[in-house]
Amino acid sequence: MRTRNTNYLCILLIILLFVITDVKAETRYQIVAHPSVDEDSISKNYLRAIFSMRLRAWSNDLIIKVFVLPDDNPLHHSFSKEQLGLFPYQLRQSWDRLVFSGTGQAPTTVSSNEEMRLKIMNTPGAIGYLETAYIDDEINVLQIK
Amino acid sequence: MYSRLNNRRIVVSCAPLEVVFILFALTLIVHSQFVSAQDKPNETSSESNTSSSSMWSTAKDLLDNLQIQGFASQAFMATSDNDVFGNTDEGGGFGFTELGLNALFRPHSRLQLSAQMLSRRAGKDNTGEPRLDFAFLDYRLYSHETNQFGIRFGRLKNPFGFYNDTRDVAFTRPSILLPQSIYFDRTRNLGLSSDSIQFYGETSSAKWGDFTVQFGISRPIVDDRDTEISFLGSRLTGGLSPDISLVGRGLYETPGKRFRFAISGVWLNTDYKPAANEVGSIGPGSIEFSPIYLSAQYNTERWTLTSEYALRKFRYTDYGVAALDNLDFFGESFYFQGEYRFNHKWEALIRYDVLYTDRSDRDGSKFAALNNNDPDRPAHSRFAKDLTVGLRWNITPRIMARLEYHRINGTGWLAPLDNPDASMTSKNWNLFAAQLSFRF
């Protein structure tokens, strides 16, 4: 009876461990860009200027195309908070202010990591973020300085 | 008759802008095709021609660089007394509708063309007739990493306060009705947009935060009847015409936009042209209206606390009528507002909003005495104190519903066109509003 209990406990612990590592894996992501983007690394301040849509072109004059996941997506939340220091509602408000005053465009919202990956690979000038599981040699990763 | 006249004037004033736009779009398309044709020989030699075609995009890319979005909002409003956007004090009404269509086009890394059509049905001065809300081109003169400097030309939203630039889009407002002490809906056409040239600059630093400055020289839109009545009263029947005016805003945001501070100012000049039957009794005077706005906001994950203050200077000159020429006073407005996000679906709002038409006569008693207690010019028409509570439900990212309740003391911001007989207005009144909004 006692060994049975320990067994259950072990299984439970292992499952818990899986869940925890899984959650951790989900929040791990990288900044990714189309190969046409002529940079290997960018500063956080530069990244902020890009995602707040104030910057329109890369240093090689290519138009910047920004892709994001939906406002309530956990990865979008982690990215906004950790990389931009902003809550998703603040980003949405600043994009709305640009769009409806005509002074800037909004990023394109994609529904999933798969769609993000496709857009980043096929859109010149594109920038976005991806869970590490979706990143392979074909994807251009931007390091944060 | 006035509204018909107005519309004609608006259409006429739009026409040159539209022509400029069409010409611009055509030049760009022709130019881009020319450039992409030039690029073709290069394609064989190098596998990527992105850097050469990036200056002027190819036709397919042109479509990718076009964003179109729209919004539609319908409100139900009911008041205990007084009318807001239609006859609302007899069971309520559906008189407040906002429809907009917006296009943003970026044909080149330095150039953006923007236009928005707006139909607004709200009371007697806003019949829902579509008008060109803004249409301008924006050229980036300088852009390096986090520093930007550029110029905008065309019909632009006047940049003042936190909300004026996007005041007709329900999703960007904290409530169904913006704080009326600062964002008057009755003189909205004047406050909203103007034909102008604007310079802007932005800079950001990881340590200090972001600075944004906008400065414009403009010709304000003052020829709608509600603005004329608000400035001159309903007894004068001549018209206002715009004179050169200035508008500017400086915005500072700490890192993470935790604090946002803005100072904005308008220096607006308009000239009065007396009607034929008024010649001799009143001169072609002018009005100087120069408000200053101070705005502050504090943001956390759940709370957004906002306050704005406005000091509005009015000066009337050269009318040859003592009652008008003696008018030189300051209006004062402010509000405190708290928004609380329970989660990304539900938000609550509480706000206290105060307007004094003349800060040296806050209860309107001097005004009433000056007019011999004329019931058509009651003291309570010179102030308004509005306590608002509201609830916002983001049903989906595209659909939003709102409820709000106002407890109001004073009629300072009531539209005179909707309430032509001021002696019939009530000092203490309530307003209930519900709104459904959609965006795409």
From TrEMBL, chain A:
This is PBP superfamily domain-containing protein. The lineage of its organism: Bacteria, Pseudomonadati, Pseudomonadota, Betaproteobacteria, Nitrosomonadales.
Automatic annotation (TrEMBL), chain B:
It comes from the Bacteria. This is Phosphate-selective porin O and P. It comes from Nitrosomonas marina.
